[in-house]
Every structure is written in structure tokens, then in C-alpha cells.
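Session log. Operator J.P. requested a structure for one protein chain; no other inputs attached. Running the standard single-chain path with C-alpha cell output.
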Amino acid sequence: MTDQPPRRRDLRDVETRIDDRARAASAPSSGVPRDDAVLRLVGVSRVYGSGETSITALAGVDLEVRGGELVAIMGASGSGKSTLLSIAGGLQEPTAGEVIVENRALSSLDAREVARLRRRSLGFVFQDFNLIPTLTAIENVALPLELDGERRRPARRLAEAALDSVGLDEKHDAYPDDLSGGQQQRIAIARAVVGGRRLILADEPTGALDSVTGEAVMRMLRARVDDGAAAILVTHEARHAAWADRIVFLRDGRVIDESQRESADVLLRTSR
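Structure written below.
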């Protein structure tokens, strides 16, 4: 059996690689100032198994997402999109490389600290919503705050504001099963951003929705990013990727191309 690469690395080496990459990158064409990077992946790889039966899901991926930026990840099934999102959210550890969220290397944190970081800084939006059916909309949104120690009344106030921001001001006390798919996904977005979370990770959030509702959900996600959040969107749909500032294409666990959104259609054809 081959030795696994070390999980911990000298952060000075990591920062050197990030600085080199930043100097090589061109400035955003829009000229809009960006915040410091909320998420950085540096040389991230993920290998399952070992020896001849091993499967490489990600291979040396570098990615940086800044506040006020929506990055779409595209690629065929099995290209590594969901693995990338899972590692970015601290749900899996990379085999090699480093994940840095708000300037904190996840490899330097223990399991409890990673869980705390997820509760306070990361919001997940899934295709199947992942709402608790026995809780109302406001209870679903307030739950992560209460789990993090927030008192019930302040948590509900923050949940109310988050629901209002996605147009559900009259649905606070509704149960998920009494709402449409689009309304349930709005609850999921509200839950993802409540409490000032700065990083949103969305895995095919429009996959179970019709085209009109899907566009409405994308408009809301875009609005949260414009308010300063950083977001990664995994999608198969070029029309949804068009809402992003940048589109990254994966194939066989590697970044094969990336572009600003105006070039998405051309890159999508050439990456197939």
C-alpha cells in the first residue's frame, strides 16, 4: 500500500501558491472591487481506494471564490463536481491539497471546529431541499442558528428577515409539504444565508424545478451574491450557469477550462 500524502502542509507554501496564482490572473473585466477570497482550494485531490482499484475524483484542483462572486461548476456526470462541493464544504477531506475558508485552513481545525465553521460560515442548497417536514418554514430557517447556541427569539427574528428577503413573508408558519417546490427551495436559500453566512454551496438547486421556477431561484441566488456572499453553483444547465460571474469546467476531476460568463456557450461546446 502506498503512503497517503500528508494532510497538513506549511501554510506559507499554500499562501505562496495562492499569491502566484493571483498575480498571474487577469483583473475582473467589470472593474467591480471584490472582497478577499472567501474560499480557496489549493492543489486539491481526492482519491478513493488504493492501488489498481483506486478512483481519482479530483486531481490538483485550484479554485478561488471571492465575496460578491458566483462561480458555476459544469461538467459531465462523474467529472468531480459534487466531490468538489463536498470538500469545499468540509464534508469530506481531500487526499491532498488545502481548503481555506475565510482564511482558515480546514486541515488545521479539529472536527468540532470544522462543524462550527460550517454552521456559521457555510450555507448548503440541495436539489431535494433537505427541509424537515415537521417544522414550519421559520423553524427550518432558525434551526441552524439555535443549534449554534442562538436564543429562540433572536433566531426567529433573523429567520423572519431571511424569509422576507426571498419573498416568503406570508409563509413563515407554513409547512414544507404545503408549499410548492419553488417555495421550498426559497426556504432552503433563506436557511443557507441566515445569520450572515458568507459562502453558499448550491448543488443542482434547480434540478427538481420547472424552468420558470428555476429561473426565479437563480435570480434569488444571484441577489444574495450581489449582497456580498460568495457562491459555488453546480449545474448541468448553461442557461443557469449564465447567471455566474465565472464558469469552471471539470473533466475527469481536473479543471479543463474556465471563462467569464459571456464565453460560456463557446466553452461548453468545446469541452464536450
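Operator note: The radius of gyration is 19 Å.
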